[in-house]
């Protein structure tokens, strides 16, 4: 704001921001985008697929499955994500004897966690589709599977797309906690650079900017997708 | 063609249909009328098992559809239904609405289904709307597409649940015209309606339902001129 532009010189001096030392490390931090994106993309795919299955279990007629899906959701929403992540990273080797890399551990943790939220969104979306759609499909003799795949889910997805995008944006930002298990994502690289030059604010601000741009890109992507789905309105 | 024997339907403690017995012959057009809540929709929905009867038996053709061994999905392919609120699939074009079930359920070739779909859309006067989405159509046009969609499965029977009740008055006629021409092709039809003029003109028989019971079953001339029961008399007085 005004204060900032008026006294920029003085503030520079006092806050002592200096990006010049960091510039050579920016490509190093940027490489983390690949890691972050890879984790997010795979986690989103896993979370979405599992979320659809859980949602179908919740609205289905088989009580045990509905109960399981509800319990699943409750546990994954009721405990911290970072705990789930660490539990999977350190727990799997302890239980199975096989080491697990940070990357698959992150994908599994975020995917499983995201599925809980996504299943709730999809469940609500399915229930919000006009009951008449189901009846019209039944009256035509369309089997349940086809009805869900071609009639109910497409309409549900259209309505919940903003909520889903929101979930995936949250996931992108939250993915920064993979730092705790040592995955070389944007966040971790910013730390490393900070440690090397003994300046943390600059690399972290750069990391923040990168996350922000990623989120904005995702938002635009969501808008474009929504526009395409709205062609039938 | 359709035979109903002692049909009962309850929702929890509420008994909505209290033993209905009737027969609808092949090619017959039957109007089902009665006050709100009398069970007209429930009766119709039992005929394609959208509601499961609590008791009683129903035959469509030679097949007893209330038999546990009957494949419900298969039965529904032979029984078309048209709803008050159309229920077109909003994310599909008009032609896709009409061809989806023939292609995906019956396994008809796409080209064949589309040719037939266009043919049906011509019949309801909407072939020029084939590539539009339903949201671009008027209510009357939507209902005509819904009729074409049901006909695309080549049903033996068509059920209509108040097909014109959700329409603006100026659109009622176009839908009734389509139904009338369908009746002339010899389609077996059961129509729940409040359009007394239409029932009188097109129906072969009128079923009057009240309180979940079939109170009168008569040709329209007879029913409208001299209803036997007091309840039908009162109902007609209110309607006309
Ligand atoms: N799924 C349901 N669950 C509980 N009660 C129902 C259900 N469907 C219908 N009913 C009740 O059954 C009765 C008959 O309903 P139905 O819809 O068959 O009447 P209708 O003759 O079609 O009336 P309308 O002219 O208003 O359409 C009503 O009291 C209604 O509230
Ligand atoms: Mg009704």
Please explain how this structure is put together:
The complex is a heterodimer of chains A (233) and B (240). Helices cover 80% and strands 0% of the residues of chain A. Chain A has helices at 2-6, 8-15, 26-59, 63-78, 81-96, 102-128, 131-139, 144-174, 186-197, 201-229. In chain A, helix 3 (26-59) crosses helix 10, helix 7 runs antiparallel to helix 8 and helix 8 runs antiparallel to helix 10 (201-229). The longest helix of chain A has 34 residues, at 26-59. The model of chain A is unreliable at 1-13 (pLDDT under 50). Chain B is α/β, with parallel strands linked by helices. Chain B has one domain (2-88, 156-237): 3-Layer(aba) Sandwich (Rossmann fold). Chain B has 9 helices and 10 strands. Chain B starts with a strand and ends with a helix. Chains A and B meet through helix 7 and helix 8 of A and helix 2, strand 6, helix 3 and helix 5 of B. Magnesium ion binds next to helix 1 of chain B. Chain A: Residues 33-222 form the ABC transmembrane type-1 domain. Chain A: One of its GO terms (molecular function) is transmembrane transporter activity. Chain A: Keywords: Amino-acid transport, Cell membrane, Membrane, Transmembrane, Transmembrane helix, Transport.
Q: Gist?
A:
Chain B: InterPro entries: AAA+_ATPase, ABC_ATPase_HisP-typ, ABC_transporter-like_ATP-bd, ABC_transporter-like_CS, MetN_ABC_transporter-like, P-loop_NTPase. Chain A has a domain at 40-179: MetI-like (MetI-like fold).
């Amino acid at each position: 704001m005004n204060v900032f532009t008026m006294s920029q010189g003085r503030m520079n001096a006092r806050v002592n921001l200096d990006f010049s030392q960091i510039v050579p490390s920016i490509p190093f931090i940027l490489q983390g985008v690949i890691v972050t994106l890879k984790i997010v993309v795979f986690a989103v795919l896993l979370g979405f697929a599992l979320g659809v299955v859980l949602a179908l279990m919740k609205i289905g007629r088989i009580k045990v499955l509905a109960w399981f899906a509800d319990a699943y959701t409750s546990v994954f929403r009721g405990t911290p994500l970072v705990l789930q992540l660490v539990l999977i990273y350190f727990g799997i080797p302890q239980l199975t004897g096989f080491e697990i890399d940070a990357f698959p551990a992150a994908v599994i943790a975020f995917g499983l966690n995201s599925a809980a939220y996504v299943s709730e969104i999809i469940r609500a979306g399915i229930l919000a589709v006009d009951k008449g759609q189901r009846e019209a499909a039944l009256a035509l003799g369309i089997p349940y599977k086809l009805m869900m795949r071609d009639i109910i889910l497409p309409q549900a997805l259209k309505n919940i797309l903003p909520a889903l995008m929101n979930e995936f944006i949250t996931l992108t930002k939250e993915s920064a906690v993979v730092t705790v298990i040592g995955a070389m994502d944007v966040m971790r690289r910013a730390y490393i650079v900070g440690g090397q030059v003994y300046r943390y604010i600059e690399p972290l601000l750069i990391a923040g900017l990168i996350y922000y741009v990623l989120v904005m890109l995702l938002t635009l992507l969501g808008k474009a997708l929504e526009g395409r789905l709205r062609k039938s309105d | 063609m359709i035979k109903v024997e002692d049909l009962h339907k309850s929702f929890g403690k509420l008994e909505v249909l209290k033993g209905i017995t009737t027969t609808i012959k092949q090619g017959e057009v039957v109007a089902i009328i009665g006050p709100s809540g009398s069970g007209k929709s429930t009766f119709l929905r039992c005929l394609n098992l959208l509601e499961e009867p609590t008791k009683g038996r129903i035959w469509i053709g030679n097949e007893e559809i209330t038999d546990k061994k009957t494949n419900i999905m298969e039965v529904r392919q032979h029984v078309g239904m048209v709803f008050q609120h159309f229920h077109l699939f909003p994310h599909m074009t008009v032609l896709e609405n009409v061809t989806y079930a023939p292609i995906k359920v019956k396994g008809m070739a796409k080209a064949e289904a589309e040719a037939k779909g266009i043919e049906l859309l011509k019949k309801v006067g909407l072939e020029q709307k084939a590539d539009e989405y339903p949201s671009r159509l008027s209510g009357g046009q939507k209902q005509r597409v819904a009729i074409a969609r049901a006909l695309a499965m080549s049903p033996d029977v068509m059920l209509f649940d108040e097909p014109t009740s959700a329409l603006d008055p100026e659109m009622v006629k176009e839908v009734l015209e389509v139904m009338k021409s369908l009746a002339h092709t010899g389609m077996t039809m059961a129509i729940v309606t409040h359009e007394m003029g239409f029932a009188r003109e097109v129906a072969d028989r009128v079923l009057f339902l009240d309180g979940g019971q079939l109170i009168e079953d008569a040709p329209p001339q007879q029913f409208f001129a001299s209803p036997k029961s007091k309840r039908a008399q009162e109902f007609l007085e209110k309607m006309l």
